[in-house]
Amino acid sequence: MGIGATCDQATLASRLWTTHAPSRPWLNFAGRSHSSAQELLLFLFYRHLLPPVEEIVILSGLNNLALARLPAGQRGDDGAFFNCGDYFGQMDKLKSQFRTHHFGSGGQQTGGDEPVRPLQVRIADAAALTIRHLESWKQLCAGTDTRITFVLQPLATWVRETAAPQERRLFDELDKISNFWELFGDIATRETARRYAELLQVGCEKIDVNFLDINPLLANSAADDSWLYVNRAHMTDYGLDLVAQLLARELDLSR
């Protein structure tokens, strides 16, 4: 969650550590555009470098929902990842060349022409995948006093329907060079966020993981004209600081 921050000191982890929850160090284990599987692996790879961890806050959720629109051949058993189409395409080319030289021709199809599944199915699939990987977080921390909280991250259109003036100018420029609404318009609504949050909350309760939907909290805390976002997923310094305040308050992170 550092994209949009003007410096390291303005990132979410820095705002928690230096100001809003300074009773313990906060480290950022986020990866750009990571899925829940990639987030889990990133922590697993570097866990041996850490002292005992008291608190894990996973601020995520959007990527799993966005990636749920990809075909089954790209989603696999553990969910898709961004740019996986390029990856699988290159792998298919290599396998095809190898088989041509040694076993004959043929390559795995990754379902590029598969129709996009209904929204409700994608919401349920993204929530189930997220909960499955949260169970692995629980098992990874079993036997410790680590508290795990999943926070549904704030998307601009999930927080409020009308953007601040500065955001509107930025969004308009970005829409000229991107296909955001074509790809993600159906998941960018507040109704989708509500349905997704409900499934995530039920799933988290079943596995005893704390859950927080920060979108309505941010909507109630920010003025209508406050500049929160540099694009619809990433925040300004002020937006990050406000989220850090809300996390510290709602999760009692300074205890």
UniProtKB/TrEMBL annotation:
<protein>
    <submittedName>
        <fullName>Inducer of phenazine A</fullName>
    </submittedName>
</protein>
<dbReference type="InterPro" id="IPR036514">
    <property type="entry name" value="SGNH_hydro_sf"/>
</dbReference>
